[in-house]
Amino acid sequence: MAHLLVVDDDVAFRETLAETLQGLGHAATEVGNGSDALAALQSARFDAVFLDHRMPGMDGLQTLAAMKAQFARVPPVIVLTAYASGGNTIDAMRLGAFDHLTKPIRRDAVIEVLARALRLDDAAPAAPKMPTEDDDADALIGPSEAMREVHKRIGLAAASTAPVLVLGETGTGKEMVARALHRHSPRASAPFVAINCAAIPKELLESELFGHVRGAFTGATGDRPGCFRAADGGVLLLDEIGDMPLAVQAKILRTLQEGEVTPLGSHRTVKVDVRVVAATHRDLRAAVQDGSFREDLFYRLDVLSIRVPPLRDRLADILPLGEHFLRRAAARDGNAPAKALSAEAAQRLLCHPWPGNVRELRNLMERCHVLVRHRVIGAEDIGVDTAVTATAAPLGPSNATLPAAWLDGELPDAIERLERLLIAHALTQTQGNRAEAARRLGIHRQLLYKKMAQHGLE
């Protein structure tokens, strides 16, 4: 039997979770705010803590930071929130949370997270100072479980100085992951430098990375520091590192091992303190096998890896991303009113296979903002290939269809996607009238507000 602490200002939720924990054979202590949680930890020993994120006064993250500052031993802390976002998930994990879960939390999820938490003997290490708020333009949008795992990995990796390997198809947002790692790390005030290894001719890449001295080659009329020295103290993103020539790979490996660079034309080494984030859409293991990528460099980079899933594998993110890009386009256009997606347009977006991933969706939404003259974007305005719709599964006597990919996933994920689509459709049909939308959906307004926040429809 474990002794567990439940911290939540919502009395009903707190009591329900405590009853669930007691039903599993554990002892549960309930408190309603962060100050009482700190007092409880001072007076008793707990095996794990369930901590609400949003609370009046001291919120969950402030409480977690205070726990780490005040106590030598902090039990595993499971942060709970009804308003999950990439930023708060990353912050929670970086501050040392054991996990970050979305309310309402199912009984099987409680069992699973407790089984992992109670296996821990030591608390997670203390984390550095919290960063500033995310820049909305660079935010990693996406409420799906797949993206929440990416957020957690970023939070866990942010405080480290080890190299990070970001994997994913072209257009999935690998540079955004690198920027989030920088923004949430102790190096946030230092430079972030990005270089695309595939976009620079191989004869110039070495100079771009390591710099050169005057006279090193024809045209070198002055000294150039190079990307490593420009990123000193900060983060360097080596984008598309899978396309880097073997000769340059060898020098990258030496820099990672020795922490120094040698500019072209010089015999003098220069010390650098740079965290390297490498990104690629290629299969580096296969590249190692065929000899186009160094095995020693692969293992040196693959200390911490983050895989960004393609957009077709996270349907729950498509509509929040689309709406985000529409709002951003409107803001750039002098805070013009953001256009809305009709239910038919939303279904067409969900049916598209998105070979260009998030980049393709962003470009489509920006095109719709410029070219569509009416307030609501219709299916005919989308103009994407809907061939995949033909393979969708029929839903009975009506002609409604669902994307075939929904049928290959788990039931809770499919229900979440359908719920979001129904709410978006009701809000569109009622022109944003929430009371009428709730009536059409057959639910109370308060539940609708909660679901809108949960699905990012506010």
UniProtKB/TrEMBL annotation:
Keyword rRNA-binding: no
Keyword Flavoprotein: no
GO biological-process terms attached to the record: phosphorelay signal transduction system; regulation of DNA-templated transcription
All residue ranges annotated as the Response regulatory domain in the record: 3-118
Limits of the Sigma-54 factor interaction domain: 140-370
Pfam families: AAA_lid_14 (PF25601), HTH_8 (PF02954), Response_reg (PF00072), Sigma54_activat (PF00158)
Residues where 4-aspartylphosphate is found: D52
Keywords: ATP-binding, Nucleotide-binding, Phosphoprotein, Transcription, Transcription regulation
InterPro entries: AAA+_ATPase, AAA_lid_NorR, CheY-like_superfamily, Homeodomain-like_sf, HTH_Fis, P-loop_NTPase, Sig_transdc_resp-reg_receiver, Sigma_54_int
A GO term for molecular function: ATP binding
This protein's name: Sigma-54-dependent Fis family transcriptional regulator
The species this protein was found in: Variovorax guangxiensis
